[in-house]
Design brief:
Layout (H helix, E strand, L loop, with lengths): L1 H4 L2 H29 L4 H23 L2 H6 L5 E4 L3 E5 L1 H26 L3 H6 L5 H27 L6 H32 L1 H25 L3 E2 L2 E2 L5 H30 L1
Antiparallel strand pairs: 1-2, 2-3, 3-4
Helix pairs in contact: 2-7, 2-8, 2-9, 3-7, 3-8, 5-7, 5-9, 7-8, 8-9, 9-10
Length: 265
């Protein structure tokens, strides 16, 4: 096995998988940051680290049930009407439910911030408990895990004849990616908490991701609506939009920072 792990193909696959897991984990970090920032200050670092460690454990466990995950994409019910055609599968239901949950959670948070903009009002609101925050993080990570794990399986499927070797490679990639996310999650969370505009931008990202999950569920279910096939939103487009929005926001924050000393003087 060591010879396989040190081979050029395995190292390249490990780097690619780790990078993929980190990119897909950005969604998780944004959600974890928003969920953790609703807790008291002394619990925020704790829930962020616990959430990511449990997420790592959950993904590693799911990797040992790859055949179960692959079976989730098999349709068990067909809907064929004059205006809607779709093949219902558990994978589609999970992605649809996750997308709806993200949209509901994000829009309710935005509504909450718009209606109670003052810090004093926000403190008087009901604060999510540590256990509730962790449960929400695990639920969202489960939804994201299905997509990332099935992608990882597809990438390593023909890498080695022994599936156990491929499994070990995927586990290593997951562990490395979570360690990287733990290193950056709390600084990102503090930055989001410090800048209210970044909080709203993060919530807007989650709404976009929610719509992406819904369209992906429809695409995987071969859904046709009024004779039109529903296609999945390319993830590259979505991540480019997020990166561009962040770049513009960073420029705006930099400009505001330069203006403040002039205003104060």
């Amino acid at each position: 096995m060591l010879e396989f792990l040190l081979s050029s193909d395995a190292i390249m696959a490990l780097i690619t998988l780790t990078f993929l897991e980190i990119i897909l984990g950005i969604d998780n970090i944004v959600f974890i940051s928003i969920a953790a920032n609703k807790l008291p200050e002394n619990q925020r670092n704790k829930v962020t680290n616990i959430g990511l460690l449990l997420a790592m454990a959950q993904r590693v466990i799911l990797l040992f049930f790859v055949s179960f995950l692959i079976g989730l994409n098999k349709p068990f019910y067909e809907i064929d009407t004059s205006w809607l055609t779709t093949s219902v599968s558990w994978q589609g239901i999970i992605l649809l439910g996750g997308g709806l949950f993200l949209i509901f959670k994000s829009t309710s948070e935005i509504k909450h911030k718009v209606e109670s903009p003052k810090e004093e009002d926000l403190k008087n609101k009901k604060i999510t408990s540590l256990s509730q925050a962790i449960i929400q993080i695990l639920l969202i990570d489960f939804i994201f895990s299905i997509d990332s794990i099935l992608t990882a399986v597809g990438m390593t499927n023909n890498l080695h004849q022994n599936h156990n070797y491929n499994l070990v490679l995927m586990v290593i990639a997951v562990v490395i990616s979570i360690i990287v996310m733990i290193a950056f999650a709390n600084p990102i969370r503090k930055f989001i908490d410090k800048h209210p505009s970044m909080q709203l931008l993060g919530l807007a990202f989650l709404i976009l991701i929610g719509f992406m999950l819904i369209t992906e569920a429809a695409h995987l279910s071969h859904t046709k609506f009024l004779g039109n096939t529903v296609g999945a939103i390319p993830k590259g487009y979505l991540y480019f939009a997020i990166a561009f929005s962040l770049f513009v926001e960073f420029l705006s924050l930099r400009i505001d920072k330069k203006k403040k000393p002039k205003i104060e003087s």
